[in-house]
Specification:
The complex is a heterotrimer of chains A (517), B (385) and C (184). Chain A is mainly α. Chain A has 14 helices and 2 strands, in the order H-H-H-H-H-H-H-H-H-H-H-H-E-H-H-E. Chain C is an alpha+beta fold and 184 residues long. In chain C, the strands form 2 sheets. A 5-stranded mixed sheet of chain C has the order 3-1-9-5-7, with helices on one face. Classes of the chains: A mainly alpha (517), B alpha+beta (385), C alpha+beta (184). The interface between A and B is large, with 103 and 105 residues.
């Protein structure tokens, strides 16, 4: 037991090893990614042509809701927790996470939460159909009966996230190898540390929001019901007080990944390390004071609109600093373009495009036109998919050879990148046009002038969806039959403690702390 | 399917080839940009918003060209395969300060016109007329305040077109039973609220989008410059009919508007007159089917079977087959705590009578009952004390 | 492995999480209400105006006050203001009435929820008497003229010329019955 993993299913059920738990998180998030992707395919297939062909509008709404919930809470958040579990102890020279048993618990309640949430689709009246933002009173007075299970599932996954974050903070603050000062930590560790603080701060707010919903639905309170003196707009304030930091929770670890990959393949240290750390902290701070920019059409007073517009514009500054630093890191480097680097560059380009549309959305008067249209859908998919999902995919290509001592097929990897990249842009770029031309989001059916671009978008979505199956194939093939690699540094330009370990990394690492100079 | 394939390919090719060119040449013309860009609209606010949108767009394009230019240059010039050796610089406080300050200045430049536009949008000077917009699941009610004119505006696209058994008309899903008629050149204030869940009233050509919130009242305004028919949508998820509650505004010159208003008042009076008339079963069934499909079918479905677990079936239901009194009560007064609205205030006596008659005789509910508008009227007034 | 520094960090974080939960449930809603009352966000009006000092009437200015009545959800009552709008001078007290009738065969209880637009006028609309302060029970078939007495604070911003006071009528019959049942 001391030297290797237990055998069979109990290894995975009872494991407290950060690498095993990381693996569990990664596979779970990929499964959820496929499930959420399947929901997306249903959505795009229905929107392929005007008219209702495949599903009914009420089921369509359940699809958009579940797609959002599964992707945000089931795919993107856990994939970065998985990467954190694998990488953080190795990057800071710790033998494992600080709270290994809690680590096991925080993973194993997740599948339960999502099984519960997915099962609501089969209940009478259907699953959640009120959008992933579940605005009251559609999600309270007018919700299907299954909403109570949805609330319970959100509580569980919130608890899981909070436990995961506490573990990460406790690990980073207490388990660093001697000499690994805060300002020597790799940026991936820094971004995760800040993300974890964000999670501890706002996941309880989400829990609070659903708790208030639960009380309104079942116990006669009226937090969000005007009849009893409540206010549906309060729900939006509480939700976005959670929701805006949430989008940075999703993107900051992705920034961390990019800050690891770009220097490696530029063979040059990251430009402006300390300003990157400060920029991350600044983004995290700003994320708490801009929430109502999601609510510009709700009827806020002028002063409120002005304040939230100015504050939101400010976020562009630290975000810009990050992009400039990545590009300067590449500048006068010695660049090669292996698959992880391709994904990292795509993140820089496409995330910045998403940032530009974000800037446009921040302009409150213009947001009157963009709000709740497909322009917003395009915007946040550029940030969430081309930002977070591309970064996570790149991270898997980047670290997989280190983890299992086998190389993925580079040609197939590059092919998968290009199919993803092209498929993604065919899917989401036309959605800018749709939104500007006046197509609202969450529409089960649309007017004829939107037909062309919807068809293009659907075709792109099928291409992008197929590229994920190729990704699964590449990873499985690499793990089973990939070319064995054994040198500690998989990549010529890689720097950091994890690359001093043998390849593949042993089950237990840094049982005696390394010396960091 | 085939008929649309060709223009799709053409438009795609056209977009790819012409986009850079067109964006420079036709930016002001708008012909090519139609369907790609935000409409300029027909109000001063919408034009301001459009200009702001384009200004920020071009600023982003310029920043993008510069930033990605540098990146693509180094991807080309500093690649290892060309023998590039990595330098080791990794810090410069001066550069960091520069790219903190410069973006801040650019943001200030953007914030200034945005603030001006926002101030205009919040103009609270007295309006020439007020329209109260009440959002329902899934239709709009327009009330010309102080005029005593009010009506429902519902999707008029038939269910058969949505489910592809009949062809789709030109304004598929953008056509309504009765459009909102407004005069041009007048300051019109919209008072927006909702009956049930959140909705949002959006007409892109006016740059008006405002949430409708139950229990709360929101205001916004517009002044339309050009006569025309303008189409919009509900922009806040409101349940299964979210995509099926369009907005149509018919903007007409003032004299025409006044004539329409007078005519509308006469028509409403005539409809009240009709309530005392007797109708035959066949007549009521025809009227009933039409009114049912407009006002009831969204939930109870065209075939009267409802949706299991959400909306009850009417086919063979105890209400439709039971006492007429109870049936009247449910339709006119609604059912508390459910999605069943009180239709007494929404529909005319004739429509109510026709719908109830239809529900009692359609889909094999062959009760043979005939409910007259007078019965509805009596029921409504019945409990005077 | 979980030495005392780890335990200490974790404990602080758990406390922080619990505090944020408490903040969301117990602090944010009342804080939002206070914020609304101070700034008029959401157009919510205050309760009964209790001050005894009467502001001087500003006859130089006239403000148009409109009344809007809406039934929420499946509320079947007839509900409408007797006058659609009035013009008042700031400081001048004015009484108006809203008509309501319960057309059903059930005894019902309603709650009217007031709301004002533009938002920045809400805190200047003072109600000395309003049916919305109490629940409104009407027996089956009963009707009532419900009173509202208000005046506008002369400090109302110059830019505001029209104030719309909206009442939305909610059916709270079941809610009242439930809370009575709970008390028993």
């Amino acid at each position: 037991m001391a030297h290797g993993p237990a055998q069979g299913i109990t290894r995975w059920l009872y494991t407290t090893n950060h690498k095993d738990i990381g693996t569990l998180y990664l596979w779970f998030s990929f499964a959820m990614f496929l499930l959420g992707g399947f929901f997306a395919m249903v959505i795009r297939a229905e929107l392929f042509e005007p008219g209702m062909q495949i599903v009914k509008p009420e089921f369509f709404n359940q699809m958009t809701t579940m797609h959002g919930l599964v992707m945000v809470f089931g795919a993107i958040m856990p994939v970065f927790v998985g990467l954190a579990n694998w990488q953080i102890p190795m990057m800071i020279g710790a033998p494992d996470m600080a709270l290994p048993r809690m680590n096991n618990l925080s993973f194993w309640i997740l599948p339960f939460a999502f099984a519960l949430m997915a099962s609501t689709l089969f209940m009478e009246g259907g699953g959640p159909n009120f959008g992933w933002t579940f605005y009251a009173p559609l999600s309270t007075t007018y919700a299907p009966d299954s909403v109570n299970y949805f609330i319970f599932a959100v509580h569980i996954l919130g608890a899981s996230s909070i436990m995961g974050s506490i573990n990460i903070i406790a690990t980073v603050l207490n388990m660093r190898a001697p000499g690994m000062t805060m300002m020597k930590m790799p940026l991936f560790v820094w971004t995760w540390l800040i993300t974890a603080f964000l999670l501890v701060a706002v996941m309880p707010v989400l829990a609070g929001a659903v708790t208030m919903m639960l009380m309104d639905i079942n116990f006669g309170t009226s937090f969000f019901d005007a009849a009893g003196g409540g206010d549906p707009v309060l729900f939006q304030h509480v939700f976005w007080f959670f929701g805006h930091p949430e989008v940075y929770i999703i993107i900051l670890p992705a920034f961390g990944v990019i800050s690891q990959i770009i220097p490696t393949f530029s063979r040059k240290p990251l430009f402006g390390y300390s300003s990157m750390v400060y920029a991350t902290a600044a983004i995290a701070f700003l994320s708490f004071i801009v929430w109502a920019h999601h609510m510009f059409t709700v009827g806020m007073p002028l002063a409120g609109e002005l304040y939230f517009m100015y504050a939101t514009l400010l976020i562009a500054v630290p975000t810009g600093v990050k992009v400039f630093n990545w590009i300067t890191t590449m500048f006068r480097g010695s660049l090669t373009f292996e698959t992880p680097m391709l994904f990292a560059i795509a993140v820089v380009v496409l995330f910045t495009l998403g940032g530009f549309t974000g800037l446009m959305l921040a302009i409150a008067p213009a947001d009157i036109q963009y709000h709740d249209s497909y322009f917003v859908v395009a915007h946040f998919h550029y940030v969430m998919v081309a930002g977070a999902v591309f970064a996570a995919t790149g991270a898997v290509y980047y670290w997989l050879p280190k983890w299992c001592g086998r190389m993925y097929d580079e040609t197939l990897g590059k092919t998968q990148f290009w199919i993803s990249f092209i498929g993604f842009n065919i899917t989401f770029f036309p959605q800018h046009f749709l939104g500007l031309a006046g197509m609202p989001r969450r529409y089960a059916d649309y007017a004829l002038q939107f037909a062309d671009w919807n068809m293009v978008s659907s075709i792109g979505a099928f291409i992008y969806g197929a590229s994920q199956l190729l990704f699964l194939f590449i990873v499985v093939q690499a793990i089973r039959n990939g070319r064995p690699v054994s040198e500690p540094k998989t990549w010529e330009g890689a720097e950091g403690l994890e690359w001093t370990l043998p390849t593949p990394v042993p089950y237990h690492t840094f049982t005696t702390p390394p010396e960091v100079r | 399917m085939l008929s649309r394939a060709k223009p799709l390919v053409m438009r795609l090719l056209g977009t790819v080839l012409l986009l850079p060119l067109a964006s420079i040449v036709c930016a002001e013309e708008g012909s090519f940009w139609d369907g790609l860009n935000m409409p300029r609209g027909v109000t001063s606010v919408s034009r301001q918003v459009y200009d702001l949108h384009m200004a920020v767009f071009w600023i982003c394009v310029v920043i993008g060209v510069v930033v990605f230019g540098v990146m693509f240059y180094s991807m080309y010039a500093h690649r290892k395969s060309k023998g590039a050796k990595a330098s080791n610089f990794h810090e410069s406080t001066a550069v960091e300060i520069a790219w903190t300050v410069v973006p801040t200045l650019i943001l200030l430049v953007m914030a200034f016109p945005a603030t001006t536009a926002l101030l205009d949008l919040y103009d609270t000077s007295e309006a020439d007329m007020d329209i109260k917009i009440t959002a329902y699941q899934w239709k709009w009610q327009y009330e010309y305040m102080g005029e005593g004119v009010s009506f429902m505006s519902e999707l008029s696209t038939p269910e058969s077109a949505i489910y592809n058994s009949t062809p789709k008309s030109e304004f598929y899903l953008q056509e309504v039973s009765e459009p909102l008629v407004l005069p041009v050149g007048k300051k019109i204030r919209f008072l927006i609220t909702a009956k049930d869940v959140l909705h949002a009233w959006w007409v892109p050509a006016f740059a008006v989008k405002r949430d409708a919130i139950p229990g709360f009242i929101n205001e916004t305004w517009t002044r339309i410059d050009e006569p025309g028919v303008y189409r919009g949508e509900c922009a806040e998820l409101c349940g299964k009919g979210h995509a099926f509650m369009p907005i149509v505004v018919n903007a007409v010159p003032e004299p025409e508007y006044n004539a329409w208003l007078a005519e509308k008042k006469t028509a409403m009076a005539a409809e009240r007159e009709l309530a005392s008339k007797q109708f035959g079963l066949d007549d009521l069934m025809v009227k009933g089917e039409e009114a049912y499909n407009r006002s009831c079918a969204a939930c109870h479905m065209g075939n009267g079977e409802g949706i299991a677990g959400v909306f009850p079936a009417l086919k063979g239901s105890p209400v439709a087959l039971g006492a007429i009194e109870q049936h009247l009560d449910v339709v006119i007064n609604g059912t508390a705590g459910t999605a069943m609205q009180a239709f007494g205030g929404q529909l005319s006596e004739v429509d109510l009578a026709a719908i109830i008659t239809y529900e009692r005789n359609a889909w094999g509910n062959n009760t043979g009952d005939v409910v007259q508008p007078v019965d509805v009227l009596k029921f409504k007034q019945g409990r005077e004390k | 492995m979980a030495g005392s520094p780890v335990r200490k960090t974790s404990l602080w974080l758990v406390l922080g999480g619990v505090a944020m939960f408490a903040f969301a449930v117990f602090v944010m809603p009342p804080l939002y209400d206070v914020f609304c009352e101070l700034t008029g966000i959401g157009g919510k009006t205050a309760g009964r105006y209790e001050e005894q000092t009467v502001a001087a009437v500003d006859t130089e200015r006239t403000v148009l006050v409109q009344f809007v009545a809406t039934n929420n959800g499946s509320m079947p009552w007839e509900f409408a203001p007797l006058e659609y709008s009035v013009r008042v001078h700031p400081g001048e007290s004015r009484a108006v009435k809203f008509y309501a009738r319960n057309p059903t065969s059930r005894d019902m209880v309603a709650q009217a929820v007031p709301n004002v637009t533009p938002n920045n006028a809400a805190q200047y609309l003072n109600k000395t008497e309003c049916f919305c302060f109490n629940q409104q029970p009407l027996l089956a078939g009963e009707e009532a003229n419900m009173p509202l007495v208000f005046f506008i604070d002369p400090k109302l911003p110059e830019s505001v010329t029209t104030i719309t006071l909206s009442y939305t009528l909610f059916d709270i019959t079941e809610r009242v019955a439930n809370s009575v049942a709970r008390l028993n």
